[in-house]
Amino acid sequence: MPHLFDPLPMGGLTLRNRIGLSPMCQYSAVEGVPNDWHQVHLGRFAAAGLGVIFTEATHVTRDGRITPGCLGLWTDEQGEGLARILRSIRSVDPEVKLGIQLAHSGRKGSADLPWKGGHPLKDHTAWETVAPSALPHDEGWPTPRALDAGELPGLVEAFVASAKRALAAGFEVMELHGAHGYLIHTFLSPISNHRSDAYGGTREKRMRFPLEVASAVRKVWPKDKTFGLRLSGQDYLDGGMTVDDTVAFAKELKGIGVDFFDISGGGIWPSKLKVKVGPGYQTPSAERVKAEVGLPTFTVGMILDGGQADEIVQSGKADAVLVGRGHLREPFWVWRAAEALGAKHFCPPQYLRAGERPGANVPRTVLATKG
User: Is residue 255 part of a domain?
Assistant: First the structure.
């Protein structure tokens, strides 16, 4: 029997199945405020039968954005905009869990929109970026300002303030972005952290600021919800962060009450990346974290179909999958996975006739308003 549609207890919540919408930046906000695009983009997944829907990376300060179009949560107006979207999704599917990913771009910020090239901004719209050390993100990128230790408590408080707004907006799942070369990850990686103070050098010192952020957010995020981190399982670079480092960090996070992990990889120095991309290529890192830390673990990275996803879960490589690009191509990816595996899935009554069309591939026996 397939396990992909089994419930997944995770902290104070239980996901109805083991498929989630991965956080995917849309670069379409105005001063961090969500708009009609976000309503349409996220709203189309309300009927999709997912276990959890994550919004895109949502930034805790204005200067912590990746691009001028990135979503934010440093003002109440931004929180109110997100709350409206959450209410509309719940009106369609009250059982789906709604998650947010809080982030600070660090030295990857002040960039143009991806469809305009994604290069560093160089005109009046650019802003100063910060990092643990004055080392650029990649070739052709500006050198960020190294953060003074006295600035770090303010950044911790920015994450806490945004977490409180996320709670008020109605989110149930909180994830901190500690991967892909953004601020938290740059403190963890020896490639980007060359500090000689209490926040750099040894693995323990490199973990200090990320643990301060996670501990502070854990204190304000209720136990009856769920709290986790996205981590880069490895940097895929010589001298970079390894899976051993990620496991050690995850064990520290478990000690402060983290409920789950979302394991990705790479992003610290894109032009030097050494990884063979293919179906499930990030899963081995997730498998190590799950096995050695013992908390629910998501995997990402070219999860192409339900059969592949179920094999990952059945074999114990990860507890659940987050699908990004696949859902952009096919919002009802979950339905297709259920059809292939002979499982039940959520379907709003307005869409039940999708199983009655001549030639339809989803038999009525597979459809259920709950499941």
Answer: yes
Q: Is residue 2 part of a domain?
A: no
How far apart are alpha carbons 296 and 262 in whole angstroms?
9
Among candidate residues 197, 217, 215, the one with its CA nearest the CA of residue 206: 197
263: pLDDT strictly greater than 50: yes
| Residue 182 is among the residues annotated as catalytic for this protein | yes
The answer to whether residue 45 sits within a structural domain is yes
Q: Which of 27, 182, 199, 236 is the catalytic position?
A: 182
Q: pLDDT confidence of 275, banded at 50, 70, 90?
A: confident
Mean pLDDT, to the nearest integer, of 47-60?
Answer: 97
The pair of three-digit structure tokens given for residue 240, joined into one six-digit string: 């970079």
Q: What is the mean pLDDT of residues 169-193?
A: 98
For 150, other C-beta atoms within 10 Å of its C-beta total 7
| Contacts with 90 (C-beta within 8 Å, 6 or more apart), sequence order | 96, 98, 170
CB 321 within 8 A of CB 18: yes
Task: Check whether 328 has a pLDDT greater than 60.
Answer: yes
Strand partners, 58: 102
- CATH number of residue 82's parent domain: 3.20.20.70
Using pLDDT thresholds of 50, 70 and 90, give the confidence band for residue 362: very low
pLDDT at 208 over 90: yes
Does any domain span residue 15?
yes
Domain with 261 in it: 8-368
Nearest CA to 32 among 158, 120, 117, 146?
158
Per-residue pLDDT tens digits for 127-150: 999 999 999 999 999 999 999 999
Question: Rounded to whole angstroms, how far apart are CA atoms 129 and 109?
Answer: 6
